Amino acid sequence: MRPVKIIADSACDLPRELLRRWDIRIVPLTVVLGTEDVTSLYDDPDAFWQAVERSGLRPQTAAPSPESLVQVARPLIEAGHDVLAISLTSRISGVYQSFQIAAAQFPGRLVAFDSWSLSLGEGVQVLEAAKRAEEGADLQSLVAYLTALRQRVHLTAVLNTLDWAERGGRIAYLMPIIRRATRLFNVHVLLHVVDGYVRFAGAQRSYRSAVEVLKKNTLRHKPVSHFWVPHTRNAQLAEQLADELAPALDIPRDQVLVHEAGAVLGAHVGPRAIGTVVVST
Prior knowledge:
The protein has helices at 16-21, 45-55, 66-78, 95-103, 120-134, 139-149, 163-168, 175-182, 207-219, 235-248, 263-269; strands at 4-9, 25-27, 30-33, 36-37, 60-62, 82-87, 110-114, 153-158, 188-194, 197-204, 224-231, 257-260, 274-280. The chain is α/β, with parallel strands linked by helices and 281 residues long. It folds into two domains: 4-150, Rossmann fold, CATH 3.40.50.10170; 152-280, Hypothetical Protein Tm841, Chain: A,domain 3, CATH 3.30.1180. Helix 4 (95-103) links the parallel strand 6 (82-87) and strand 7.
């Protein structure tokens, strides 16, 4: 049985220290501002948002090429490892398809897996896979484990504005539903991910009210084994949310990952978005 290494795309939003600790390799999505390629800023939110402010433009993203994964996976395979490549949901991105094309070059050695989630909803699956791989799990058992896990991962988010999501186009299929449901432009929308699809989860006239609904929706998933808080440019509120919900979810506060999402999510939700990720038991 060969040891397994984990590769993920940059939308997983895991902090650098966790990537290093569990030897998780990253294949970044392409991120551009006009003609400037800012892909290298995928895990540096401060630098990314500074670049956005300087340019006055809205970022765009694109899936990595199959060759991008091949370049990362090949040395691992040649060193005697099997590789599991985990992607953000195929329902809104072409990353999984790109990973599948790459995997076809290494049958039985490289497997692509669709997380059915994004940001830390993907990240929690990546991290749990890396932990089990280090314990000796093989490719087959890891895929079986993640197939069960992804159905228990719940990601809900509040957007400060719909403008970024609408311009980004990834949830264009949702916009008519949202517009019909709200009939207002100055609302704060809640979204959640269900079976890999981003769904409309309601709207509130004030940001504060939307966050209160986010809290209630999060608590509905009790009992949970994990509770994480992704955000964009909203660190203070994210920490407050973690402080408040951790005891209510029976999760030790020091086990709650509060982390700012990188350029991929930021490009599509804009600043001041906040979410919760829980894994139901």
